[in-house]
């Protein structure tokens, strides 16, 4: 019987397996897809996420350093530099490949396959033909394991969706830019010296180019050709009853998700991976729920407030002017996300 079976070989799952191996546990990852896997995400890693990657022994993967967050609405703007080290803009595929290499270096075994039914008893959990002491589900936003175990909660609020594409253009800034409009937001992340990623977030279901047309100032910047296909994700918000049941814990997006607006997804995934392994190593999986709530609290509160405010045309128009008028408050909010 292995110590830990990780369902999902994305960044959250691989980080969980590496932490487990470094803690002296035998970890096996089960994943049906070939690494690296691309997906729609903002691709900005906050400073805490950069430190988490370093703690995993990755060093600094190739990407573009990020100096802070900038909000833009027409001619108005507000910005706040990070004060705890730089962030990192990095292609999802580069991050995934780097974590896969590190997993191989630490002895993590990766099995190609699908999980199917998850069964557990007082001593073990079985899935995908493998038996383990513990299972971590890191199988994404719409986690099949979470659904199978009855941990989903309904959400009746308007559904938000995200779409992302890259452009072959030299970044004009080393800030993550969030462009606001009444219909949604455009999230711009430099990911290389000649490449930027642009994600659009909205409750309005329409094509990527139609969304981007609502940001003429940004569109004028995107002079280079598209460098990737459009990828989509959603609905973004995922409510979860709790982060574990029995010998199963949820990590990363599978543990619940508010929105991509504040760009904390990768950093939170890495933090929850470390917390889950720490709790399992101590034999106290019941502590993970409190640990997860603590490490995600500020992100959840701030992201929820911004999504609610941006969901009303009047609120969306006021966010950037308010941030510009109260730079200390805006800087404090950015610090809370670091």
Give a description of the structure:
This protein is of the alpha+beta class and about 350 residues long. It has one domain (about 1-155, about 235-335): FAD/NAD(P)-binding domain. It has ten helices and 20 strands. It has helices at about 10-20, 45-55, 90-105, 145-150, 210, 215-220, 265-280, 290-310, 315-325, 325-335; strands at about 1-5, 25-30, 45, 65, 70-75, 75-80, 85-90, 110, 120, 125, 130-135, 150-155, 160-165, 175-180, 185-190, 195-200, 230-235, 240, 245, 250. Strands 1, 2, 8, 9, 10, 11, 19 and 20 form an eight-stranded mixed sheet that branches. The chain has a seven-stranded mixed sheet with strand order 6-5-14-15-16-13-17. A three-stranded antiparallel sheet has the order 3-7-4. Strand 1, helix 1 and strand 2 form a beta-alpha-beta unit. Helix 1 (about 10-20) packs parallel to helix 3 (about 90-105). The two termini are about 40 Å apart.
Give a brief rundown of this model.
With 338 residues, the chain is α+β, with helices and mostly antiparallel strands.
Q: What amount of the residues lies in strands?
A: 25-35%
Which range best describes the helical content: under 10%, 10-25%, 25-40%, 40-55%, 55-70% or over 70%? 25-40%
CATH class: Alpha Beta
CATH topology: FAD/NAD(P)-binding domain
Number of domains as seen in the coordinates:
1
Classification by helices and strands? alpha+beta
Characterize the main sheet: 8 strands, mixed
Q: Note the gap between the termini.
A: 39 Å
Low-confidence parts lasting 5 or more residues at pLDDT below 50? none
**Molecular shape:** globular
Mean of all residue-level pLDDT scores: 91
CATH architecture identity: 3-Layer(bba) Sandwich
Let me know the CATH homologous superfamily: FAD/NAD(P)-binding domain
- Give the C-alpha Rg: 20 Å
Number of helices: 10
């Amino acid at each position: 019987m292995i110590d830990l079976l990780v369902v999902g070989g994305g960044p959250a799952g691989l980080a969980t397996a590496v932490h487990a191996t470094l803690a002296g546990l035998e970890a096996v990852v089960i994943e049906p897809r070939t690494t690296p896997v691309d997906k729609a995400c903002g691709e900005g890693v906050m400073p805490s996420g950069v430190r988490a990657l370093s703690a995993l022994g990755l060093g600094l993967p190739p990407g573009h350093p990020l100096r802070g967050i900038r909000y833009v609405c027409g001619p108005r703007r507000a910005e706040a530099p990070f004060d705890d080290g730089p962030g990192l803009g990095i292609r999802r595929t580069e991050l995934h490949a780097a974590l896969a290499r590190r997993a191989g270096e630490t002895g993590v075994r990766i099995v190609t396959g699908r999980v199917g039914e998850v069964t557990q008893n007082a001593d073990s959990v079985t899935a995908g033909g493998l038996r383990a002491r513990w299972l971590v589900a890191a199988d994404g936003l719409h986690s099949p394991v979470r659904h199978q175990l009855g941990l989903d909660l309904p959400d009746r609020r308007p559904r938000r969706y995200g779409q992302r594409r890259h452009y072959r253009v030299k970044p004009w800034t080393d800030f993550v830019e969030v462009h606001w409009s009444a219909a949604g937001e455009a999230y711009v992340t430099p990911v290389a010296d000649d490449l930027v990623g642009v994600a659009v977030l909205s409750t309005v279901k329409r094509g990527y180019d139609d969304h981007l047309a609502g940001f003429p100032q940004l569109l004028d910047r995107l002079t280079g050709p598209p460098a990737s296909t459009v990828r989509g994700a959603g609905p973004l918000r995922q409510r979860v009853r709790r982060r574990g049941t029995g010998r199963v814990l949820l990590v990363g997006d599978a543990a619940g998700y508010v929105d991509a607006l504040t760009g904390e997804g990768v950093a939170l995934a890495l933090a929850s991976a470390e917390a889950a392994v720490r709790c399992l190593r101590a034999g106290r999986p019941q502590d993970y729920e409190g640990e997860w709530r603590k490490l995600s609290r500020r992100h959840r509160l701030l992201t929820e407030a911004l999504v609610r405010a941006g969901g009303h045309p009047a609120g969306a128009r006021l966010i950037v002017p308010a941030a510009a008028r109260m730079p200390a408050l805006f800087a404090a909010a950015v610090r809370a996300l670091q």
